[in-house]
Write a structure and sequence with these properties.
Elements: H1 2-23, H2 27-59, H3 62-66, E1 71-78, E2 84-90, E3 93-100, E4 103-111, H4 129-142
Antiparallel strand pairs: 1-2, 2-3, 3-4
Length: 143
Amino acid sequence: MNGVRATFVALLTAAASGAQAAAAPSPAASASAGSLFQVLLGLVAVLALMAGAAWLLKRFGLAKNAGSSTARIVGGVSVGSRERVIVVEVADQWIVVGVAPGRVNALATLPRQESAVTLEADAPPAKNFAAWLKQTIDKRNAG
């Protein structure tokens, strides 16, 4: 029992001296705050450097060319909330693929075509969103 009391008194004494040391600011505490600021500044600099390098890779297209593959997605369309039909070009053929959660099915195989998208000659040119928005706002304010 005396051993337990002695241990308890030693712990209380250590806690009290720790509380006194924490209450009085020391020069070591301000030095550690300065070094913490320096570490954080270095971390921000490294993260900014990484973001800049990623932006440069994306800007100049170096990331795309790094992993040249033999398959290329020609196009696709969503046919449901989680289902898509995709056309994949592999070598000299196009493969029409149905993609759903947990499933990928080859639907058809076609010979490679020169142009996937054909525009109608008499189709009116598409308006840009800004012009459409301005027109809609003008209609709303006029009426």
